[in-house]
Design brief:
- By secondary structure, this protein is an alpha+beta fold.
- It has one domain: 3-Layer(aba) Sandwich (Aminopeptidase).
- Helix content is 33%, strand content 27%.
- Strand 4, helix 4 and strand 5 form a beta-alpha-beta unit.
- The radius of gyration is 16 Å and the shape is globular.
- Keywords: Acyltransferase, Repressor, Toxin-antitoxin system, Transferase.
Length: 166
């Protein structure tokens, strides 16, 4: 069965059977994603197969203190620094290890780059759940915070440079 392109979470998407192996991420999708949509707290994007969600990520606008940020990101920036928070990213266990997480991350980065044309966003920030997630994000170009190794950032200048090299 065909997997959809990432799209905004809608009422017709089925969440019940989603299982990524991290109960925190499973529960959030099933109990908070739609509430956060309604309140404007975050936006969730999903990939589906027959309307069953098989992967998702969530974005929210935020800011981060200079103290939490590597030098190249805080240079010439106000305190706090405007960021896009990658609040959640998960793939169903049945599809893990197939590059879908990286594809979802790439979509989140592209959407963030588009949003940065309308509002100031210096970087994408993620709070990794554990060491394994940290390794994933580091492999995708994110840099750990000097204060908290599980907080990582990807400057949009790096994204723009890589997009320009294509």
């Amino acid at each position: 069965m065909k997997i959809s392109a990432p799209c905004h979470l809608e009422a017709h998407h089925h969440l019940e059977s989603f299982c990524c192996g991290e109960s925190l991420l499973d529960t959030w999708l099933k109990t908070r994603a739609r509430k956060n949509e309604a309140s404007g707290a975050s936006r969730t994007y999903v990939i589906t197969r027959s309307n069953d969600v098989i992967g998702y990520y969530s974005l929210a606008v935020g800011s981060v203190s200079h103290a939490l940020v590597p030098g190249r990101i805080r240079r010439n920036m106000p305190d706090p620094i405007p960021v896009m928070l990658l609040a959640r990213l998960a793939v169903d266990t049945s599809l893990q290890g197939q590059g879908i997480g990286r594809a979802l991350l790439r979509d989140a980065i592209l959407r963030t780059e588009q949003a940065a044309h309308i509002a100031g966003i210096r970087a994408i920030l993620v709070h990794a759940l554990h060491e394994r997630a940290k390794v994933f994000y580091k492999g995708c170009g994110f840099t750990p915070s000097p204060i908290n190794e599980l907080t990582l950032m990807l400057p949009l200048s790096v994204v723009r440079a890589s997009m320009g090299s294509r």
